[in-house]
Amino acid sequence: NVATHFKRNSGDKATLFYPSIIENQIREHCQKVGIEAFPLLRTGKVPTQHIEHDSQGEKKFTLYEPGVIENFQFSPEECSQLKTIEGALVIPLYSQILFFVDQVISIHPGPFYFDFHDAVDFKKDFNQIRPYLERAHFAQFGLSQTEKDNELKELLLNYAYNEKIQLLITSSHHEILYF
């Protein structure tokens, strides 16, 4: 989804690297929307995120089953292939895949566009977020109007101003901040 939206909204070249046990469905979708797809095929189970909806329709992410991503390691050939990708890497940051993301960051020089979502996977803690911001060219957050989110928003805006990274923050009150 992140790669599809990036491609649709930016028009830039998009490449998707993804661990999988099958390649057909994702690759077919990528071809339709103009994304270059590189399935990192492994044997095992498909990673599965279970989602429930509350009474207001909000998604609640419950059980996560990592499947083939659990102990994922890039092969030397995959590392070489990843290094050749030109342009920005767009990466969603979920706690379940950070070890995979950390490998990508150690292999590819960037730039990186990170989607932190609501930052709950980082406990909305700037100190946990900062190492990824330090590698980011662009960072996106979806925050609410809580006191904790407002404190985080101020830290993020100050960081973006001082470090000259692009920052997009959306909120539940239809507020969009782009810096």
Q: Trace the largest sheet across and list its strands.
A: 5-6-7-8-9
Helix and strand content put the structural class at alpha/beta
Number of helices: 6
Largest sheet: 5 strands, mixed
Task: Give the low-confidence spans.
Answer: none
Residue share in β-strands:
25-35%
Name the helicity range.
25-40%
Distance between the termini: 24 Å
Shape category: globular
Number of DSSP strand runs: 9
Any overview of this molecule?
The chain has 179 residues and is an alpha/beta fold. Helix content is 35%, strand content 29%. It has helices spanning 2-10, 24-33, 76-83, 98-107, 126-133, 147-163; strands at 14-20, 35-41, 48-53, 59-65, 89-92, 112-115, 136-143, 166-171, 176-178. The longest helix has 17 residues, at 147-163. The relative contact order is 0.10.
Write the layout of secondary structure elements.
Layout: H1 2-10, E1 14-20, H2 24-33, E2 35-41, E3 48-53, E4 59-65, H3 76-83, E5 89-92, H4 98-107, E6 112-115, H5 126-133, E7 136-143, H6 147-163, E8 166-171, E9 176-178
Parallel strand pairs: 1-2, 5-6, 6-7, 7-8
Antiparallel strand pairs: 3-4, 8-9
Feature tags:
five-stranded mixed sheet, two-stranded parallel sheet, 9 strands, alpha/beta, single chain, about 35% helix, about 180 residues
